[in-house]
Amino acid sequence: MCGIVGAVAQRDVVDILIEGLKRLEYRGYDSAGVAVVDSQNKLHRVRRLGKVQELSDAVQNEPCPGGTGIAHTRWATHGAPSEANAHPHLSSDNIVVVHNGIIENHEELRGKLKTLGYVFTSQTDTEVIAHLVHHEFKSCDTLLSAVQLATKQLDGAYGTVIMDANDKDKFIVARSGSPLVIGYGLGEHFIASDILALLPVTRRFAYLEEGDVAEITRQSVSIFDENGNAVEREIKESDATHDAGDKGEYRHYMLKEIYEQPIAIRNSLAGRIIDDSIDSDVFGNNAEEIFKSIEHVQIIACGTSYHSGMVARYWLEEFAGISCNIEIASEYRYRKIFVPKNGLIVTISQSGETADTLAALRKAKDLGFKASLTICNVPGSSLVRESDLCFMTKAGAEIGVASTKAFTTQLVGLMMLTIALGKFNDVNQEKLKEHTQALLTLPNKIDEVLAIAPRIEALAEDFSDKNHSLFLGRGRQYPIAMEGALKLKEISYIHAEAYAAGELKHGPLALIDDDMPVIVVAPNNELIEKLKSNVEEVRARGGLMFVFADVDSNFVSDETMKVIDIPHCEIGIAPMIYTIPLQLLSYYVAIIKGTDVDQPRNLAKSVTVE
Ligand code: HGA
C-alpha cells in the first residue's frame, strides 16, 4: 500500500527518492513526504497532502540537499490524510521514521510514551515508533539496538526505516509483515517497499525476511534476524525492465495493461506447454509427487484474485475432478477451519504481499494442509517464499490500481493447475488436451477482442448518467460478471452488483427499470438457453441490456438490448476472453465520468495492511 524509498549515498539523493515515490505512487497517494540529512547533520523535511507531484514541486522551493534520506507515499490507516499525518514522522527533531503497516498496540504505547513526556503531533500509529526508538536510544549505544528493542514492543505489521539526523551516514530498517527490499549500488545502498522504486538506480536486490532488522550504510549492509543473529540474505539480479513504470503511448496505465494482456499471457505460457501437455515442474520441483496425492483444493484470495479463484473452482471440479472450496482470506483467517485430508492450499495474489492472504496461508500451514501453492506475479514475494509450490504469472509490473493483466494471467495459471491436477484423476484426458491447446490460442483471441474497443467505447455513453448497474453471468462466467462489476465500481464509482443470472428472480429483479443497465456475459456454452430465459425476465420488466455474446449464440439487438459480438472461443478460455470487454467498458465509462482511472479514490495497490 504505502510506498517507502530510502537511500544512503555520497551524491544528493532527493531526486532518487522522489522518482522512487512516483514509481510507487499507485500504492497509496493521499500524501507524501521526504526527509534528508545533509553533510552538516542538518535535517530537511518536506511533506505535502496529495500526489507526489505536490511534494516534487515543494522540493523545488525547499531544497533537500544531502546523501542520506527516506521518503514515503501514504495510504492512511490511522489519522486522516493531512500534512501533519504524512510521513516521515519525527521524535525530538532527530529520530526520523517512515512506516508501512499498522501498529496495533499504538494506543497503549502512546499512553506510555506520553507519561514519559513525549508530545504527539499526528494521529498516526506510526509516530509511536519514532518516540519509542528515541526513548530506547537513551539507554543504547547504537541506533540499531534501539530499533531492535523498540520493534520487540510493537504488535501488528511494519516495514519501517529509521534515521538519526545526528548520524548522517546510516539508517536502520525493520520488517515484520510488510515487505522491504535492499538495493545494492556501487558505494551506495537503497531500501524500498518494492523493487520498482529502485530500478533506475540498481538491479541487485535482497529481500528482508520476517523479523529482520538491518543497519545500512554507504559501504555496508548488516542484517540480523529476529533473534539478533547476523544473517545473510541472498542478493539477486532482477530482470524487471526499467521502463515498467512508464505509460508509453497510453493515456493511462490501466489501458496500457489491458492492451498488454496478449503479451503477458504469451510470457506466462512460454516454455510451459510441451506437446500439448503441462509438466508439473512448472509449479516447482516436487510438484508431481504432491499433485498425485491431492484430494482437495482450498483457494484463498482477496478482491480480483478471489474472482480468478472462483473461476478455478468451476474448472477444478468440472475438468480436473477434484473437490474445491474458495474463501475470502480475511474471513478464512479468523474462523475455525475443518482441515480436509490431503488438501492443497492455493493462494492467489498479484503482489504476493496481500496481508490477509499471507495470514491465511500461515494459518493453513499451521493447521496441517498437505502442501501450499501460490499463483503470484512478484518473484521473491512473501507468498512465494512461504509456499511449497508456485506458479509465477509473467504479467510484468501492474501499476493501475484496478487489476487487469494480473487477473487474466492468474486465470492462465489456474487453468494450468487444473490441467496438471487433472492428469492424476479419472477425467477425460482428451478434454484436458483441448484446454491446453486452447490456452495457446488465447493471446490471439484477446487481440481479436481488443479490436472491438471502439464499439465498447461507444457504449460507454449509455452509462455516464447512471448510478447503478447489474452484471449477470452463469456458471464459469458468474465470477467474470463479479469481476466486471468490481472494475466498474473501482474506477467509475458507479454502483455495480453481480448476480448469478439464475438468482435474479429471488430478489434483484425488483431493481430492474430503465435506469438500471444490465450487462450480460453470454458465451455459447451449455447454459446459454438458461441464460436466454434470464435475459427475457429482464426484458419483460423494461430493463436495458448490454449483452456480450458469442457470435454463434443468436442474440439480436433491438431497442431494449444491445448485443456486442464476441469471437467464438473454446469454453476453457471463455472466462479470460469475456473479461476483456468488461475491462474496456469500465475504462471508457471512467473516462467519461472523469475519474482518476489509475489511482481511484480511497484505494491502493498491494494491500499490505489487514
Ligand atoms: N498506519 C500508517 C501507515 C499506513 C500504511 O501502511 N498504509 O498502507 C498510517 O496511517 O500513516
Provide the fold topology.
Blueprint: E1 3-8, H1 14-24, E2 31-37, E3 43-49, H2 52-61, E4 68-74, E5 89-91, E6 95-103, H3 106-115, H4 127-137, H5 143-152, E7 156-164, E8 170-176, E9 181-184, E10 189-192, E11 204-207, E12 213-217, E13 221-224, E14 230-231, E15 236-237, H6 253-259, H7 261-269, E16 273-274, E17 277-278, H8 287-293, E18 296-301, H9 303-318, E19 323-328, H10 329-332, E20 343-349, H11 355-367, E21 371-376, H12 382-386, E22 389-392, H13 405-422, H14 429-450, H15 453-460, E23 468-473, H16 478-492, E24 495-500, E25 518-522, H17 528-539, E26 545-550, E27 561-566, H18 574-593
Parallel strand pairs: 18-19, 18-20, 20-21, 21-22, 23-24, 23-25, 25-26, 26-27
Antiparallel strand pairs: 1-4, 1-10, 2-3, 2-4, 5-6, 6-7, 7-8, 8-12, 9-10, 9-11, 11-15, 12-13, 13-14, 16-17
Helix pairs in contact: 3-4, 4-5, 7-13, 7-14, 9-13, 9-16, 13-14, 14-18, 15-18, 16-18
The structure holds glutamine hydroxamate.
